């Protein structure tokens, strides 16, 4: 059975709207237009004006309204047409949503989901290509998930909606149309993917790739390339950026002794940086046979031109190059053994 | 001696896009008179106590006093029903008290002690209670939040509404206009209340706003201007507005008022206005004095009753102050208590490592 | 044949907080007529070319066409002086051309090629030229930016002003109101131009705005409503507005217009409005057809001249299209070229390490 | 000679206003009120309404106006009363200021300074205590500086104003009133502190502390404590967060072989995380005798209560503890040697 990421998200919304009266969706073009990227297709027809709400193009205002509604007992899902526009509303995400439970000493929790496509799409240039994973995950009080495939998307969004705290769901426009095989259990109305747990997408013993969102795909492709050379790369799909599932990463590194982090966001203070630091601070550090290496988006705003854009994000050969470098002499041995 | 009186509000309401306004002739019972007077006095004394505690360096950080503006809060509260809600900014000690928190709950929060209504974790700007969605330290942020609370009322169909309060300074914030617009489109039961005390920090409303008739700034939203120094006018306008927003949709209410103190404790409040200006308001428009005198004149309250209330209020606040001064702070472990309602972090990072186990004491009201 | 004609604008201006409005009787010379017609036709053809290139997948990402709205840009440009500036949103191919960029500069930018006015780095939404502060991909952001350009004009005392353009959808953004307010307080020479094409993506103005009389939404700021399908009305209003903002301060101008295409290329543009609605505008209000017919009727332009212009424009745009299709992209090293005007990074990080040396080709205009 | 950080900033503004007609200051209460924290004291009287502009409380709008003015040739200094409020304007900082030079292929540079107090002050609770160093430094196109003392404050602000690119100057309210001894050269109207260069505040051979802003003070105090034990800690004041002066850190680590990063911001994707990653990716990594360790703000929103607040940020004993841990056996040896 196959399902696109879009349908995974759409069915997750549908399930949770059906399950809990308090859940509603608001955002630009989510209702009558069926969503700018059609994530909410059919939901307005099914649930009507009360539950699926078109907003004017006023992110700060509608995010604030959504947070207020959550404080007062509803379960809003607030869609940003893309996360780039969440910058207009970021004060409400951080100061109104993330901090309120703590500031109120546990009196007022804020059950809200902020979701939408994050990071680079295709040909949309500098203002529409930013990855917000590291920014949001910097802030306590928020949970941050970043699904890769359909199972992730559906399961994480459903968990996010049921969670009593604010959750940021960073989707990827480029993945919306991709169909992935899914188990029967995934379509179960109570299927959930736990927030804070990573998933091993491909086991391997020689080196670990850890990534989130579309970069997981790059890792899987790179692992396939490396396999041809006799190198078995393990691929970890983070799924959550906050909490970061270090236990899964540590276990993998204890096995492979080599780690490459991969992300499409910018390097400085990024996701990979945090993983490097956590490894350093853990006993697992001593299991490393080589320093951890990062593959990241190039440290520039995203250009429009196709070739430049393609070079702005880590590609398969960047990952294999990094892996070979990290493996050093061992790569040679593995290659030799495979021959 | 009277048990009830009929009163004309002092200054006429001004209306924007409304054919009819609030009642200008209002009834006041003796019980109400006693209650409003007590409430306003308590707020005044609470603020005086807070100011003193600040000067003693027992309250830290920010401390924004509401003295001079008491009639706004007490008048609105008098009109609110159980289903109604309120959210405001950082000038909320009085509101917190009105919304059910004891003077100890307020003052201990200010001293950062464990009996504070936010257990000392929130401080001056972050107090909450049922139907009170808090102070907020970010100018303007509470306005869309309040519209959201109104949305929840309408969604749940509980007949309630939300008062979203903001200052004349905040009134220029873009998100306020965004909230007006959506509240109008969605007919949300929200009263947008601009407490116009003439200054946003050191900036007079004229220097900050292209139009200082704040009650007209909702554009398509109707508006009411009300004398915010007259508790009965505020009550009447709020009663009208509650009815209006539940039947027609949102409305803007401007309460014309004044703050006696500086913006926060670090501001003497005299560089951008004259001492005479402050004195004149105190003498001619003080919301408590004028109400008291009117009630005495009408025979609704006796001077003895006034004295008794004053004494009682003073004692209550003095006791609360004494308590708040000595009440202990939370144990250090509360630093990592109730960070999330559903904690998923294995360990919370302390200053030097992942060595803290999240403690869950509360889950929050929204489960 | 005439060399000049006197014309009444079609639909009367509407005024907000203004006693007097723009001239309704305007002069049009033959040269002007030829110029406006050529400009509008060029924009229309540029957009048609862009649409086709998009369908051929040579233009990627976003591509927002201006077809139907040509009279707005051409009318405003006709009134602008050398010292004047303009900033708009993402629907700016036409403006880029009017502000001095060649059709190749526009179309090559759209194809991401090196002859593009931003060398292919900006794409559809990010084009610039002298006095043109760009398209902008963030709805509403250009409005305070434009007010800032106006501030710079006033600060430098150069007599210039800035047109800050935004759509009916953007008109609800809070920052637009913030910009109105400060522009008024500081008397900035800014014309806030709301290009009301009735839709923000799939949302009609009625569903997005509490008040769709956008020219009145500046509150204290005066406003003018103008028929945005009538190039001469737009020119007249802009002339009036330029004079006004330089003497009195900011003003809001609403140009009533229509977009023929979908919002961007992925939107067929027919789910939220009927094909008949679009057809009706095309037939009855098309800015180019109506202008052409009027000019012919007045004897200002002959049908032969029209044909000649059409041919010339078509050829110019076709040639530019052909060029833009084959023009090369920048070399990959441009990925790390001109990241900063004054680069201080020792190395720029590539995908796998700090292995890139910043290349400085330009410094920017502000030195 | 002594000068407070406040006077350092004030004189920097004064110098640059005098030097360049295009420079102007705008923000809330900067003019008639002399600045909420009196950084602009006297400047309105001296330069008048044109150059020192009071704004309404509309950060998104006035930051946008400032950026527009910069695009059109002026040199605005945009004050946020605190950086917490910069969240309302962050879209203009990132999308309008940081990305424009690149998006325009080098046509339009944006010479603007965003400045104001950053991070925790005293008793101001969760919404007024956030550190934005890592967020801003994540984004290419921005320069980010974070002065510690008077020399830093004055020299970095002057450099920032003269820089043709957008610069974020993260000050610290708690330091404004602190007087530091200054050299004569510091008061020179052309005194500048280069952006992108760190400063060694105290040399040492056993371990390196690297910090920025007020955390530098904590490091100096910790170094003094360690000195009593015979441990010589080198203290690096980053001064700039972007660019990060890794050369100075590397050189120090090659000498001390031990590194502790210190910051008052949150840990995840923070400044320390980036430094860990950069060390890992450099040859200097092999000079380490122990893993790098981070001292950071506790990963919670800032509470109001005094004791909790004090424990929310790294204190001197946290640093000495971290240092002793990182030094491990060597600490014992040094202590023994010192006896
Ligand atoms: C977004 C934001 N900007 C600035 C501040 C700093 N600040 C706090 S209160 C205030 C003045 C607000 O004035 P007004 O809205 O009139 O309310 P009042 O203090 O008079 O009750 C300012 C500028 C803030 N807290 N939040
Ligand atoms: C802040 C922000 N929110 C949302 C978007 C997505 N978006 C781009 S254009 C647009 C519609 C704008 O409509 P309008 O202002 O009427 O301009 P028009 O497209 O009609 O020219 C939307 C929602 C965006 N680019 N920026
Ligand atoms: Mg005020
Ligand atoms: Mg539109």
UniProtKB/TrEMBL annotation, chains B, C:
One record GO biological process: pyruvate decarboxylation to acetyl-CoA
Enzyme Commission number(s): 1.2.4.1
The reaction(s) this protein catalyses: N(6)-[(R)-lipoyl]-L-lysyl-[protein] + pyruvate + H(+) = N(6)-[(R)-S(8)-acetyldihydrolipoyl]-L-lysyl-[protein] + CO2
Top-level lineage group: Eukaryota
Cofactor: thiamine diphosphate
A GO molecular-function annotation: pyruvate dehydrogenase (acetyl-transferring) activity
Keywords linked to the UniProt accession: Oxidoreductase, Pyruvate, Thiamine pyrophosphate, Transit peptide
Domain (Dehydrogenase E1 component) ranges: 39-331
Function (record text): The pyruvate dehydrogenase complex catalyzes the overall conversion of pyruvate to acetyl-CoA and CO(2).
Name assigned to this protein: Pyruvate dehydrogenase E1 component subunit alpha
Organism in which the protein naturally occurs: Drosophila busckii
Full-protein positions shown: 119 to 485 of 485
């Amino acid at each position: 059975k196959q399902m696109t990421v879009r349908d995974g998200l759409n069915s997750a919304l549908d399930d949770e709207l059906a399950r809990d009266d308090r859940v509603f969706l608001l955002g630009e073009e989510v209702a009558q237009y069926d969503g700018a990227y059609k994530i909410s297709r059919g939901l307005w027809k099914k649930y009507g004006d009360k539950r699926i709400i078109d907003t004017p193009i006023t992110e700060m205002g509608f995010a604030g309204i959504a947070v207020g509604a959550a404080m007062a007992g509803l379960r809003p899902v607030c869609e940003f047409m893309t996360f780039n526009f969440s910058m207009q509303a970021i004060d409400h995400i951080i100061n109104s949503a993330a901090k309120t439970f703590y500031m109120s000493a546990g009196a007022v929790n804020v059950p809200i989901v902020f979701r939408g496509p994050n990071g680079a799409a295709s040909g949309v240039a500098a203002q529409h290509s930013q990855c917000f994973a590291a920014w949001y995950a910097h802030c306590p009080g928020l949970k941050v998930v970043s699904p890769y495939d359909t199972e992730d998307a559906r399961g994480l969004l459903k968990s996010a909606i049921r969670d009593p705290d604010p959750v940021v769901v960073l989707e990827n426009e480029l993945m919306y149309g991709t169909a992935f095989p899914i188990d029967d259990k995934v379509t179960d109305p109570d299927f959930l993917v736990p927030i804070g747990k990573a998933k091993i997408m491909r086991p391997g013993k020689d080196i670990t790739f850890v990534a989130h969102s579309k970069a997981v795909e790059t890792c899987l492709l790179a692992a396939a390339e490396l396999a041809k050379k006799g190198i078995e790369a393990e691929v970890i799909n983070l799924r959550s950026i906050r909490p970061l599932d270090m236990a899964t990463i540590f276990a993998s590194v204890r096995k492979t002794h080599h780690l490459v982090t991969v992300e499409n966001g910018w390097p400085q203070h990024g996701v990979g940086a945090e993983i490097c630091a956590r490894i350093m601070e853990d006993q697992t550090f001593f299991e490393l046979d080589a320093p951890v290496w990062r593959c990241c988006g190039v440290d520039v705003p995203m250009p429009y031109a196709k070739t430049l854009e393609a070079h702005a994000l880590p590609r398969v050969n960047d990952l294999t190059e990094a892996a070979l470098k990290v493996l050093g002499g061992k790569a040679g041995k593995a290659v030799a053994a495979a021959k | 001696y009277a048990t009830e009186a009929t009163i004309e509000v002092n200054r006429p309401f001004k209306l924007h896009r409304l054919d009819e306004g609030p009642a200008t002739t209002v009834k006041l019972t003796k019980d109400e008179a006693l209650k409003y007077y007590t409430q306003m006095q308590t707020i005044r004394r609470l603020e005086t106590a807070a100011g003193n505690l600040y000067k003693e360096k027992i309250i830290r950080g920010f401390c924004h006093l509401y003295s001079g503006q008491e009639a706004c809060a007490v008048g609105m509260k008098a009109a609110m029903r159980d289903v109604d809600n309120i959210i405001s900014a950082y000038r909320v000690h009085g509101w917190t008290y009105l919304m059910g928190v004891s003077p100890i709950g307020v003052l201990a929060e200010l001293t950062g002690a464990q009996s504070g209504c936010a257990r000392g974790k929130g401080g001056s700007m972050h107090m909450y209670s049922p139907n009170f969605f808090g102070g907020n330290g970010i100018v303007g942020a509470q306005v869309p939040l309040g519209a959201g609370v109104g949305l929840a009322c309408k969604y749940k169909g509980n007949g309630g509404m939300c008062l979203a309060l903001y200052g004349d300074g905040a009134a220029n914030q873009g998100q306020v206009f965004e909230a007006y617009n959506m509240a109008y489109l969605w007919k949300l039961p929200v009263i947008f209340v601009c407490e116009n005390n003439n200054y946003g920090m050191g900036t007079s409303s004229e220097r900050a706003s292209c139009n200082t008739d704040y009650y007209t700034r909702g554009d398509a939203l109707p508006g009411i201007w009300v004398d915010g120094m007259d508790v009965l006018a505020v009550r009447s306008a709020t009663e009208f507005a509650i009815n209006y927003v539940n039947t027609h949709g949102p409305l803007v209410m401007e309460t014309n008022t004044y703050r006696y103190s500086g913006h926060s404790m670090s501001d003497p409040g005299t560089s951008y206005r004259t001492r005479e200006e402050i004195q004149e308001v105190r003498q001619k428009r003080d919301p408590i004095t004028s109400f008291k005198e009117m009630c005495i004149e009408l025979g609704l309250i006796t001077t003895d009753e006034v004295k008794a209330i004053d004494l009682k209020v003073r004692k209550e606040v003095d006791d609360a102050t004494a308590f708040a001064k000595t009440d202990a702070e939370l144990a250090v472990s509360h630093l990592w208590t109730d960070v999330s309602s559903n904690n998923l972090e294995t360990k919370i990072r302390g200053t030097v490592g992942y060595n803290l186990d999240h403690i869950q004491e509360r889950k929050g009201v929204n489960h």
